[in-house]
Design a protein that fits this description.
There is one protein chain. The protein contains seven helices and twelve strands. By secondary structure, the protein is α/β, with parallel strands linked by helices. The chain has two domains: 8-101, Elongation Factor Tu (Ef-tu), domain 3; 109-254, Rossmann fold, CATH 3.40.50.80. The chain has a six-stranded antiparallel β-sheet with strand order 4-3-6-1-2-5, covered by helices on one side. It has a six-stranded parallel β-sheet with strand order 10-9-8-7-11-12, sandwiched between helices. Helix 5 (194-200) runs parallel beside helix 7 (224-235).
């Protein structure tokens, strides 16, 4: 019988805590060696003051850095009244927090069937695990075409533009990036919801490739509304959720 791998907690030091907007941040931390597969997540933990003392509050976050990068990077948003996210946002360089080991999760390329085309569709901070994956050689060696779609309410929430531009420059025939902004004009992409542009065909037209069950796998990462709507639309194309015991076309990771 395979032994249960137990979670252990380790100290981490804050290197930086960068604001993209008032509510979107990137936390960079340093800890002892933490092996992981691109796309996996860790849990962060902090003591939060309460009326009776302190309370340990924890939440899971995907890693954005590549597995061979020393600093760990977390892309997160401040949740209104969220105990941990507000505490994380107050962290300064040199502060400490706890991080779980080992990293966990199956939102990784090793779980994706062999197909020519990979679509990575995200809303908000759901962009994070894709950036880690795209920093690895495996992504570019496995797929003929990779399409990254990122949906946000406002243009200034399109974080990591410079990093994404490096992928566009390095893999001009293999990679496409499409942004969708719902609440204002988008000078460099689409306006409206991702699902609207999938239904209209605009998404595939901009990508220069189709989403079809016979040659495509779709990764979905973001809020539950996007996941549910996308799964329904993809289901109309004969695509179903991918499971280890039942291969399919859709792999999901829900962000709350």
């Amino acid at each position: 019988m395979t032994g249960i791998i137990r979670t252990t907690w380790h100290n981490a030091e804050v290197l930086s805590n960068q604001h993209w907007t008032a509510r979107l941040l990137t936390l960079r931390i340093r800890t002892e060696s933490l092996p992981f597969i691109a796309g996996q997540f860790v849990t962060l933990r902090l003591p939060i003051p309460t009326a009776d003392g302190t309370e340990l509050v924890a939440k899971s976050y995907s890693l954005i850095n590549a597995p061979d990068e020393e600093a760990l990077e977390i892309f997160y948003n401040i949740v209104p009244n969220g105990k941990l996210s507000n505490a994380l946002a107050r962290l300064q360089p040199g502060d400490s927090l706890e991080i779980s080991q080992p990293a966990k999760g199956f939102f990784v390329l090793d779980e994706i069937p062999a197909v020519p085309n990979l679509w990575m569709i995200a809303t908000g901070t759901g962009l994070g695990p894709y950036l880690s994956i795209l920093k690895t050689a495996q992504a570019w060696q496995r797929f003929q075409k990779i399409v990254l779609v990122h949906g946000v309410p406002l243009v200034n929430e399109l974080a990591y533009a410079e990093l994404i531009d490096t992928f566009v420059t390095q893999y001009p025939e293999q990679f496409r990036f499409i942004s969708c902004v719902t609440r204002e004009a988008n000078p460099h992409g689409l306006e409206g919801r991702i699902t609207t542009h999938l239904e209209s065909g605009t998404l595939e037209q901009m990508a220069g490739t189709t989403i079809a069950a016979d040659d495509t796998h779709v990764m979905l990462c973001g809020n539950h509304n996007m996941l549910n709507d996308m799964k329904a639309l993809l289901g109309n194309r004969g695509m179903q959720r991918h499971l280890r015991h039942k291969p399919g076309h859709i792999t999901t990771e829900q962000y709350f």
